[in-house]
Amino acid sequence: MHPLKLLQPSPTLSARLSQIHERILERAPCVERIACVIHDADSDMLKTFINSTRAGTPIAGYEFKLADSVSLSRLAAGQGVRIIDDIPAAIVPNSKHSSWLLSQGYQSSFTTVLNDEGKFFGFLFANSTQKGAFTLEVQRDLLLFTSLINMAISSELAAIRSISASIEVAKDLANLRDFETGAHLERMARNSRLIARKVAGKYGLNDEFVENVYFFAPLHDIGKIGIPDEILLKPGKLTPDEYAVMRTHVEKGMRIIETILGDFNISELPNCTILRNIVLCHHEFLDGSGYPNGLRSADIPLEARIVTVADIFDALMHTRPYKKQWTYEQALAELRRMAAAGQLDADCVEALDCAKSEIESVLSQYTG
Ligand SMILES: [Fe+2]
Ligand SMILES: [Fe+2]
């Protein structure tokens, strides 16, 4: 059998935004920053998503409630643009976001809504270090380019929504066949996001990557759908033959993923690489002792290293047919032992320790 192959990522939304920014700069050199935030309708949170920043330090891994901003809420409800010609005069530093904005030396801003078939889903912000940079002419240019960015994001979100339907089916199936609970998938996805955020600085990960790890993590074991009950649900230890069958869930998972992506015609979606890597590599260990390809160290994509740690952590923390529940400290000690033995990524393990309070809140929110 040929080893299953890893795919190289193609341009992401972040890369496309920076190309579009390049073109904007040719026409309006004063526009030094373009950033898009996405609105989560369930929680009313606006989350930083993609940005192209030529002057100042980008803000990332940040979220704030739409309802807390009167002017943005108004903008979201209607259409049009919000122009601020003199930021230091107009903005009160009453949030991390506004303090950050003031500290960057931006003098003026342009904000408009992002829509998908008329439905609000986020904002595009443009900033300049010049006062009053957003003249009518610049606004016209920006609106034109906004529609391009809007289109790129909404087609990607539509693709992700299609996969999202499959994720729900996967969760239901796991629940129904009793090999995993929906709560495990939710917790390990949230903990994967926490780890990704903590290691983002060191590995240069952007928000787009972090959100995608969160989004795709629940599909890591989708291939278990194809494993017979007597092996999948066996209460005792598996025999070597049974274990060999169990290991095939990775290849089965890859086949299912390719079918889903093919059915929705979205195989080329750049972020699908993250999904494929998670499914394919979540049982690889850094010392080459994992499966299916026995990959080593940096050959294992970071998204998979993150999900592996989050998955093992959650398994240790919860009762399984073959083991009792461990405490947070016991689980962390075991992960550290595995990192010291060269199996797990030590940065990802330590990230769990740094995020202790957030992890405890995830644990208490999603039980079962
Ligand atoms: Fe697995
Ligand atoms: Fe799992």
Task: Describe what you observe in this structure.
With 368 residues, the chain is α+β, with helices and mostly antiparallel strands. It has 2 domains: 143 residues, GAF domain (Beta-Lactamase, 2-Layer Sandwich); 188 residues, Hypothetical protein af1432, CATH 1.10.3210. Helix content is 53%, strand content 12%. It has 15 helices and 6 strands. A 6-stranded antiparallel beta sheet has the order 3-2-1-6-5-4, with helices on both faces. Strand 5 and strand 6 form a beta hairpin. The protein starts with 12 loop residues before the first helix and ends with a helix. One fe (ii) ion binds next to loops.
Which descriptors apply to this entry?
368 residues; alpha+beta; Hypothetical protein af1432; 2 domains; 53% helix
Q: What is the fold's blueprint, element by element?
A:
Blueprint: H1 13-27, E1 33-40, E2 45-53, E3 63-65, H2 70-77, E4 81-84, H3 87-90, H4 96-103, E5 108-116, E6 119-128, H5 136-177, H6 182-203, H7 207-216, H8 229-232, H9 240-247, H10 249-263, H11 272-281, H12 302-317, H13 328-340, H14 346-354, H15 356-365
Antiparallel strand pairs: 1-2, 1-6, 2-3, 4-5, 5-6
Helix pairs in contact: 1-5, 6-7, 6-12, 6-14, 6-15, 10-11, 11-12, 12-13, 13-14
The chain binds fe (ii) ion (2 copies).
